[in-house]
Specification:
- The protein is an all-beta fold and 187 residues long.
- It has no helices and 14 strands.
- The chain starts with 15 loop residues before the first strand and ends with a strand.
Amino acid sequence: NVTAPVGASANAGPNQVAVQRGTKVTLDGSLSSVGTYLWTQVVAPGDPTATLTGATTQSPTFTFPFYQSPANNGALTFNLQVSSIDGSVANSTVTVSPSSDTVAVTRAEYVVSKGSWVIAGTSSILAGQKVTAHLGLITGPVIGTAIVDPTGAFSVKANGTAPANNSQVTVESQLGGVSPSFAVRLK
């Protein structure tokens, strides 16, 4: 009895949702046929690049990249290509979607006499992530950065040029959250 080789079949596993940025993610091609495996990231414009460890195995890993404007803030897609011994090839994709913290600005002041900024706010995820304050939208110039403390609070303190009247600030978190714009108070 001779068994003919089985054609390639690829199964990149179920889509993964609510993955926290900065954490290790494992892709799962274990339901694919026996063969040679090659995982690659399907990069869309603005996507951050994820470095796959074990890209030629059934279950490679990567660390979900932290967010920073102007990068894409959404899901990353990966393709699994399986090549069978009979020469057939099959592909399957999986999407990994990040969770985001909720960021809010509670105070944005510029002290004209000192040339200094104080931008305070909160994040829904406590402790450790970096936030970046921008003048205007997140595409605007960076005012400064801070680290969220164990209570979820942050305070960006920086020196810089005075903003125009009626200016606003926006804060982004490396975990993906972006605050609504907040009016700057000149003192």
